[in-house]
Write a structure and sequence with these properties.
The complex is a heterodimer of chains A (574) and B (366). Chain A has 574 residues and is of the alpha+beta class. Chain A has helices at residues 43-54, 57-76, 84-93, 95-104, 113-142, 167-180, 199-224, 479-498, 530-545, 557-564, 569-572; strands at residues 157-163, 184-188, 191-196, 226-233, 237-239, 247-250, 262-273, 283-294, 301-306, 311-313, 316-332, 338-343, 347-348, 355-361, 374-382, 402-410, 430-432, 442-445, 450-453, 458-475, 502-510, 516-524. In chain A, helix 2 packs antiparallel against helix 5, helix 5 runs antiparallel to helix 7 and helix 6 (167-180) packs across helix 9. Chain B is globular. The chains are: A alpha+beta (574), B mainly alpha (366). Bound molecules: protoporphyrin IX containing FE.
């Protein structure tokens, strides 16, 4: 080894890199080279230049950065996709800003033109990156690891010794050793060239391809998805048609034909709750016992739907998302004729299912004078009523249910053609039923009890309590693809980040004095400090097979280390 | 026994456990404070030693005089240890060749002693804090991450655990002790003063084993990202210091004394890369586990909820960082800034989103 291999010590960043390794250092990854050259003239020249830029690492990096920046506004500004009412509130509060946001698509960032263009460009870039990289990698697999560079001393890990063994013998031993260590190795003239860790590239390509699969699956899911809600009282049924839903949302390409044909009936809802301890009142089980049938003439089957355990029919999943109570109410007119009997679902207000709602008697009722009238009742319900806590339930189960009712008569306003909430009364044309003292009549009822309306106007009875469950039916096609893609992505990523790709060369030649000089060198990506360790290991084994000439077992540090500040193998590990 | 009596008894044991947990957390803070002073003492003793040496050697090297090579024998596993050939290692392309600093103690024996005491105290404090976290979990009868107070105490425990694990694996990380313990004290201080919440319930949507998987990996990722961020910040300081030296500048004596003892910028950079890269697949898994859980609980696996969005932003930011490391012209400082940005996203996802933004995750509770 000669002094000429040392770098000029004045150079603060010695050029020890791949540049002067030639072919040996090339293609240790398939990362595209960054070129900033000015394009050749002409349309094709420009097109090619643009394509090169788009598929360069630099642009991929910028697009990734843009993607993360672009995702930010959607998390801070209310989005129509998640909360329509909040968007409306925002628009009312800031009309001018709202208009600006509207123009920029900031109320639906993730489907806006600009956000879509970022990720579409990114994925074009990704495809443009994967295809050539795959070819290049296939080429690398079919070829052989490049032969040793001229000066092995320039490599990041290096060792040498002199031995009495013949060069051919050493090379053969090295070849056998490297092959045994699962390197791809071959003889290349006076040296053995070997490479290992191709799985890194496989992992990396698999990861990027998986990203594409995930994106397509996600986009597909968004376009064809549907989501609808339906509240069902025990004993009632639901069949999967658009008109039956309480609310319904779907992707742009979804059509009604894609609703899976099925129907079900809620037989029984059961909830049980923690009775003691710090989690008192927390739900232990929520489950809905249903009978369902698939298709128009399917036969009835029973199943249980739980929170986090949806019922799956075709591509649809039926989730249990909420539950509450529906007191069974009977309303009679002054003559005792039943004008209304139904279970009325009430909406929970808190964790202990304090609930409220309204009862609307639309027709069939005539007042004492025999005139048609409508009735409305405000209902307030505590499943567990405790003395001292009259306005809120103290436990979510039906321990001591109490229904508080206040009545109205007149016109409910339901015929005006304006859609009305079933949980609210429009009191503009209603009058209160008053008690003897002239205050609004309001009573607490237990199951079986009846409240008499004043002046023989009739009565309202709280018969019993049913429960209701809310079901969310969703259909998100291609979610299996998204899941598969993500699993591949994780494994690909792990392979890409944990496996290091490295090369080892062993050169054995006869020196001028007739003694064989063995040189070994390793090259990996800069992050892998395992390379010198592995090289030392290999060298140790080879050394045992081709022992050093006494006194000459050392690497010659004077040549390399003067200014290149060689450090120990262990020192490089951190 | 009547129902009321059982209730009272259970409540009493739980209250007892909750109080025990609080006592343990305060004790852990006290021991961490002792550890903090021990680390400080280590740094102070370290400054007495002649660290100027390495700096001088570095500048000399730049002047063209030869440095003594630090070559030793590679220790192998077999008997012929001393006869084996030595492996000479050179820095990778484009990197300065600066040896690692000796650590906070600066080679001073007394400093080293204090450093060891500091590490022992850290282990003790860690065990006490861990017991505090477990007591808290037992008192609420669920995993200890139902609100920000619990998240904070669990997070700092895991961060210290990561540090101690690296130490146990004989990684060169003791230099990080002071910085880590300082922030752990800060984190616990905020937890017990601002964020403290008495035991609390979880809403039913949170009941799923995916919760345990998703949140525990999220906490672990955060802790490891945090360790990476500390080393990235120190890398930036050390790198500008080395640049100054290489350019013939004379850094202040405090900077010299302080930064000389840290590992070389190249080592710090490599360490942060390793740490971040090692945990990135786990972070990917965390997000996917969250998506699966959301699919089970809310009927959609991805809905651009603020918490989901910020997890995604964090993920993309770390992907940016990994890409930057493979892109010419972005290695080094620019990549380091990206790593810090990415960690900033993680922090915002935890604190910012809970405090400023409301979404489906808002029951995490401030
Ligand atoms: C959706 C966007 C993308 C994401 C999330 C992503 C993510 C990642 C991640 C996490 C790595 C780290 C693995 C490693 O260091 O080996 C990586 C590596 C890599 N990516 Fe991407 N990537 C994306 C797009 C692209 C594009 C568009 C290109 C092409 C220009 C590209 C080219 C590469 C290359 C060449 C590597 C390997 C770098 C190396 O060998 O160290 N990626 N990518």
């Amino acid at each position: 080894m000669s002094k000429t291999t040392t770098n000029a010590p004045t150079d603060p960043t010695p050029a020890t890199g791949d540049e002067d390794l030639g072919a040996a250092g090339s293609q240790l990854s398939t990362a595209p080279e960054d070129t900033l050259s000015v394009p050749a003239l002409g349309v094709i020249g420009w097109a090619r230049w643009c394509w090169r830029q788009l598929t360069s690492m630099r642009v991929a990096l910028l697009l990734l950065l843009l993607l993360s920046l672009g995702a930010i506004p959607g998390s801070l500004i209310p989005q129509t996709g998640t909360d329509e009412t909040k968007v409306a509130d925002f628009r009312n509060a800031n009309p001018t800003l709202g208009d600006v946001y509207d123009k920029l698509g900031l109320f639906h960032v993730y489907s806006s033109v600009w956000f879509s263009s970022i990720y579409i460009l990114l994925f074009v870039s990704l495809i443009g990156c994967i295809v050539p990289r795959t070819w290049q990698f296939v080429g690398q697999l079919r070829g052989r690891p490049p032969g040793a560079p001229k000066r092995l001393t320039r490599l990041p890990a290096y060792t040498t010794w002199r031995t009495e063994a013949e060069p051919e013998q050493v090379r053969e031993a090295a070849l056998a050793l490297l092959k045994k260590r699962r390197f791809r190795a071959h003889l290349a003239g006076d040296n053995v060239a070997a490479e290992k860790g191709y799985l890194r590239e496989v992992g990396n390509l698999a990861f990027h391809i998986a990203l594409i699969v995930m994106l397509i699956a996600f986009a597909w899911g968004q376009l064809f998805k549907m989501e609808g809600n339906k509240l069902v009282v025990e004993g009632d049924g639901f069949s999967n048609t658009l008109t039956q839903y309480d609310d319904f949302k779907s992707g742009t390409l979804f059509t009604q034909d894609e609703l899976d044909p099925f129907s079900f009936t809620l037989n029984d809802f059961q909830g049980s709750y923690e009775k003691t301890g710090p989690n008192r009142g927390t739900a232990r089980t929520f489950q809905a016992d249903v009978s369902y049938s698939v298709g128009a003439y399917g036969k009835d089957e029973r199943t249980v739907i739980k929170v986090n355990k949806p019922m799956e029919i075709g591509d649809s999943k039926v989730y249990l998302t909420a539950h509450g109570y529906a007191p069974v109410i009977t309303v009679r007119d002054g003559k005792g004729k039943v004008v209304y009997r139904d279970a009325v679902p009430l909406l929970p207000l808190d964790n202990n299912i304090t609930s409220s709602g309204v009862i609307k008697v639309m027709d069939g009722y005539r007042n004492t004078k025999g005139v048609r009238e409508q009735l409305g009742f405000e209902a307030f319900f505590l499943p567990t009523y405790t003395v001292g806590s009259e306005t809120a339930s103290t436990f979510p189960a039906l321990n001591n249910p109490v229904l508080n009712l206040a009545g109205y008569y007149g016109d409910l306003g339901v015929d005006a053609g304006i859609p009305q909430s079933v949980y609210q009364l429009d009191k503009s044309h209603l009058k209160e039923f008053k008690d003897a003292k002239g205050k609004q009549q309001r009573e607490n009822l237990k199951p079986g009890e009846t409240m008499k309306l004043p002046n023989g106007a009739g009565s309202i009875t709280y018969d019993s309590t049913a429960e209701w469950a809310n079901f969310q039916v969703t259909r998100q096609p291609a979610s299996d693809w998204a899941l598969t893609g993500s699993i591949v992505a994780i494994f690909g990523l792990a392979g890409s980040l944990f496996i290091s790709r490295r090369r080892v060369w062993v050169r054995a030649v006869k020196g001028a004095d007739g003694v064989t000089v063995v040189e070994m060198a390793g090259l990996g990506r800069s992050e892998s400090a395992k390379v010198p360790e592995e090289l030392g290991d290999l060298a140790g084994i080879l050394y045992d097979q081709a022992p050093g000439v006494s006194g000459e077992t050392e690497a010659e540090p004077d040549g390399v280390s003067d200014s290149d500040a060689a450090s120990v193998a262990e020192g490089a590990e951190n | 026994m009547t129902l009321a009596a059982t209730t009272e008894l259970a409540a009493a044991t739980n209250e007892h456990l909750a109080n025990l947990s609080n006592t343990l957390i305060y004790s852990a803070m006290a021991v961490y404070t002792l550890a903090f002073f021990a680390y400080i003492t280590e740094w102070i003793f370290g400054s007495r030693s002649k660290i100027g040496r390495t700096a001088a050697a570095l500048t000399e090297g730049a002047d063209g005089k030869a440095k003594a090579p630090a070559v030793t024998v590679k220790k192998g596993g077999s008997t012929a240890v001393l006869e084996r050939p030595k492996v000479v290692v050179r820095a990778a392309a484009g990197q300065r060749d600066v040896p690692d600093g000796p650590g906070a103690h600066g080679g001073d024996e007394q400093g080293d002693l204090y450093g060891r005491i500091a590490v022992s105290l850290t282990v003790l404090a860690f065990l006490i804090e861990l017991a505090g976290v477990i007591a808290r979990a037992a008192s609420v009868e669920r995993a200890p991450w139902g609100n920000m107070y619990e998240f904070n105490i669990t997070f700092s425990t895991v961060a210290v655990g990561v540090y101690l694990t690296l130490l146990a694996l004989r990684k060169n990380v003791r230099w990080m002790g002071l910085f880590l313990i300082t922030t752990v004290l800060l984190d616990l201080g905020i937890a017990v003063t601002v964020l403290y919440t008495a035991s609390d319930q979880l809403v039913p949507a949170l009941h799923s084993y995916w919760l345990y998987i998703h949140v525990s990996t999220a906490i672990l990722c955060g802790a490891v990202f945090y360790v990476g961020a500390v080393s990235t910040i120190l890398y930036l300081f050390k790198d500008s210091y080395e640049n100054k030296l290489a350019g013939g500048g004379k850094p202040g004596s405090f900077a010299t004394s302080f930064l000389e003892r840290l590992p070389a910028s190249a080592s710090l950079d490599k360490f942060s890369y390793r740490v971040n890269a090692a945990v990135f697949p786990l972070w990917t898994f965390t997000i996917i586990a969250g998506a699966i859980w959301a699919g089970d609980a809310w009927g959609r696996y991805w809905g651009w909820d603020p918490k989901e969005t910020w997890a995604f932003i964090t993920w993309v930011a770390y992907a940016c960082y990994l890409h930057a490391r493979a892109t010419a012209g972005w290695k080094g400082r620019k990549a380091a800034y990206l790593a810090l940005l990415a960690f900033g996203c993680w922090l915002f996802n935890y604190y910012g989103v809970n405090i400023f933004v409301s979404g489906k995750h808002s029951y995490a509770g401030v």
